[in-house]
Each structure stands twice: as structure tokens, then as C-alpha cells.
Amino acid sequence: MADEIKNEELNEVAGGTGSVDVAAINVASGVASARTYTVQAGDNLTAIAAKFGTTWQAIYNNNRDIISDPNKIFPGQVLKIQW
Fold first, then answer.
1. pLDDT, tens digit, for every residue of 6-28?
2. What is the spatial distance between Cα 81 and Cα 23, in angstroms, rounded to a whole number?
């Protein structure tokens, strides 16, 4: 039963995809983790932050090496998302 619950929790963390990556396991276990997100057309930092449960300020601060203005991000940019 406990394994079944853990599997369900991990699947939920992984977005219900049925596949769990290391970042998802780290989030489930409370370990700080980073992953990347590739900016798509129409994205903004606020919307990206909402997807990952963080703030646009955190994303901006973690990516100051590639983002000079938080209002100007471009499709194809690969952002580091810290949890």
C-alpha cells in the first residue's frame, strides 16, 4: 500500500505523465533541484513561474546571465528553473 501511494504521488509530481524524472523525485523528497524550460512563443516569466510554482523574480535572478530585461524573453531561450 505504501509503495502504491508513493507511486501515485510521484506520478502526480511528474504531471500525470507516468514517467518520473530525477527533478520530480527530488521535489517529492524535498531536495532542492533545478531543471530547464525552453521558452515558447507567447511565454512570459510570470506564466512560466506559475507552471513551476515559483516567482518570475526567482526565474529572472537564476537566469541573469541570459536575461537582461525580464520583460524580454525569446522563444528558444533555455531557462534554469530552481525549486
1. 455 545 555 555 544 545 555 55
2. 11
Say which residues have a Cβ less than 8 Å from residue 48's Cβ, sequence separation at least 6.
37, 39, 56, 59, 79, 81
Helix (H, G, I), strand (E, B) or coil at 64: coil
pTM of the model: 0.61
Enter the DSSP assignment of 67.
-
Reduced to 3 states, what is the DSSP secondary structure of residue 31? coil
Residue 58: predicted pLDDT = 97
CA distance 39 to 57: 16
